[in-house]
Amino acid sequence: MDIMDLPVLGSTLFFTIFSLIGLVFFIRSSVKDRTQKIRAWIDNPEAGILDEIKTYFNSRAYRITNIDPVQQAIAFEGNVQASPFLAVFLSLLAALGLLCLALVLAVFWPQRGFLFFFLLWLAPLAGTFYWQKAARVEAITLELGDPDQPSHPGQYPLTITAHRDELRELQAQFPLDWQGGSSH
Question: What's the CA gap between 62 and 75, in Å, rounded?
Fold first, then answer.
């Protein structure tokens, strides 16, 4: 190894390790909770829109776990499954990152270079981590508020707390006056 190659190899190793740190955070964020709240304004809760929303969530494999008439709230729960595609994709990304690290380390220490390729055995841990953490029970709440809002007189605010993907589907299904999307 030429002495002129040392700074290049050092910076290559630094950026490879830096990109692996980013990959670890990417894998961790694949299971992050993405619960959000949105609000819709409805004219008359007895008009059937709440029943339609309840039926919609029931059809998406959520079941009612609690009805609170005092708070005018309904809670749903449903099991969310992990994506097999994403588990394989994360494992492949981890394998690619570990292969890059093994190649750089093999150039640094050529006498033991073949040993670094055993790092590739760690790649399936990324998919396993995602698979175990992504399958979970997801909660949805519907809360009906008082119609005494100055911004929407005579309309009832319906606040829905759920995963952002569920909220997107709900907004596409029901063309209401939607506001929000803040993280919870």
Answer: 10
Take residue 119 and report the two structure tokens written for it.
């790092």
105-131: per-residue pLDDT in tens? Answer: 888 888 887 888 898 999 999 999 999
d(CA 64, CA 74): 7
Q: What is the pTM of this model?
A: 0.72
Rg (CA), the chain: 25
pLDDT single digits (tens) 42-51: 877 666 778 8
Give 66-114 as a DSSP string: EEETTTTEEEEEEEEPPPHHHHHHHHHHHHHHHHHHHHHHHHHSGGGGG
Let me know: does 136 contact 78? Beta carbons within 8 Å: no
Dist. CA 26–CA 117, nearest whole Å: 22
Instruction: Please give the Cα distance from 141 to 123 (Å, whole number).
Output: 37
Q: Which amino acid is at 35?
A: T
- Residues 61-100 have pLDDT tens digits of 899 998 888 778 889 999 888 899 999 999 999 999 999 9
Helices (H), the chain: 5-29, 49-59, 84-108, 124-134, 164-173
Collect all residues with Cβ–Cβ distance below 8 Å to 23 and sequence separation of at least 6. Answer: 93, 94, 97
Residue 118 DSSP code: G
Q: Which residues contact 83 (CB under 8 A, 6 or more apart)?
A: 134
